Amino acid sequence: MAQETNKRRMNGVVVSTRGSKTAVVRVDYRRPDPLYGKYVRRSSKLHVHDPESACGDGDYVAVEECRRVSKTKSWRLVEVLEKAVQV
């Protein structure tokens, strides 16, 4: 039986794979404006630990919170959901 975890999971698009064993993932989300209440699109960039270098630029991936790996990396790659189309 698989053990359930309370770790946060997010999906996003890989925007950079220049670092060794590191990918930068942009996560888009919607938040209501504090004054007007209208929903506004926002995004965050997460540094993700990718030891096998499995993802490439433009891939849609799932990431999960983990212990801190370095100064900026505290997320790890779970799986590549969709590969980017290479033109």
Concise summary:
This protein has a single domain (9-82), classed as OB fold (Dihydrolipoamide Acetyltransferase, E2P) (Beta Barrel), CATH 2.40.50. The model has no long low-confidence stretch (mean pLDDT 93). With 87 residues, it is mainly beta.
What does this structure look like?
It is a single chain. It is globular and about 45 Å long. 13% of the residues are buried. It is 0% helix and 53% strand. The chain has one domain: Nucleic acid-binding proteins (OB fold (Dihydrolipoamide Acetyltransferase, E2P), Beta Barrel), CATH 2.40.50. It is an all-beta fold.
Per CATH, the superfamily is Nucleic acid-binding proteins
> Architecture, according to CATH?
Beta Barrel
Order of helices and strands: EEEEE
- Average pLDDT value? 93
| Strand residues, percent | over 45%
Q: Given the helix and strand composition, which structural class is it?
A: mainly beta
Q: What low-confidence regions span 5 or more consecutive residues with pLDDT below 50?
A: none
What helical percentage do the residues reach? under 10%
Major sheet summary line: 5 strands, mixed, barrel
**Strand numbers in spatial order across the main sheet:** 1-2-3-5-4
